[in-house]
Amino acid sequence: MDLNTLLETTVVGLGYELVDVEMSPRGRTIRVFIDAPAKETGIDVEDCAKVSNQLTRVFEVENFDFDRLEISSPGLDRVVKKAADFERFSGQEIQIKVRIPQGGRRNFQGELLGLKDGKVGLRLAKDDVELEFTNIEKARLVPRFD
């Protein structure tokens, strides 16, 4: 079983959402970002400890070698990767970087309008744009401090 499948199965099985995974260049440090959409208060230390303990056991059983495992909440500027996330966070401010420039630009920031027919809608200061979902390299929410 590959690492992403192993992580997804374990994290979802514990009742959390797997947001993102980062690995150090040599694969010795694994950073796992989790969320609990049903929980109003977000991820806390107990959630991270629960996932960490379970993943440590799973890695031992699966004979997956690592030096350090870090579990964290996705933070206010969370990564937006999955198609469902582009719907879930509709109406929020987002930064998007595309692989292939569109209209001479690779970086966009505006209000997320959602995902429809494989295109992510974005309201910019002057107009609305549609970006191909498959062309998105990175997307992050922009935190609001009201």
Q: What's the number of helices?
A: 3
Question: Could you say what the CATH topology of the largest domain is called?
Answer: GMP Synthetase, Chain A, domain 3
Number of DSSP strands? 8
| Main beta sheet strand tally, sense and closure | 5 strands, antiparallel
Report strand %.
Answer: 35-45%
Q: How many separate structural domains? A: 2
Order of SSEs: HEEHEHEEEEE
Highest-level CATH class of the largest domain: Alpha Beta
CATH superfamily of the largest domain: K homology (KH) domain
Rg over alpha carbons: 17 Å
Termini separation: 44 Å
Which class do the helix and strand fractions yield? alpha+beta
Helix content: 10-25%
Shape: elongated
Q: Which strand order spans the largest sheet, edge to edge or round the barrel?
A: 7-6-5-4-8
Low-pLDDT segments: none
Q: What would you say the CATH architecture of the largest domain is? A: 2-Layer Sandwich
Give the overall average pLDDT.
93
Keywords: Cytoplasm, Ribosome biogenesis
Pfam family, one: RimP_N
GO cellular component, one term: cytosol
Protein name: Ribosome maturation factor RimP
Overview of this structure, please?
- This is Ribosome maturation factor RimP.
- Belongs to the RimP family.
- The chain is α+β, with helices and mostly antiparallel strands and 146 residues long.
- It has two domains: 3-72, K homology (KH) domain (GMP Synthetase, Chain A, domain 3); 83-141, SH3 type barrels, CATH 2.30.30.
- It has helices at 3-13, 45-61, 83-88, and strands at residues 17-23, 29-35, 68-72, 93-102, 105-116, 119-123, 128-132, 136-141.
- The chain has a five-stranded antiparallel sheet with strand order 7-6-5-4-8. Strands 1-2-3 form a three-stranded mixed sheet, covered by helices on one side.
- Helix 1 packs across helix 2 (45-61).
- The longest helix has 17 residues, at 45-61.
- It is elongated, with a radius of gyration of 17 Å.
- The model has no long low-confidence stretch (mean pLDDT 93).
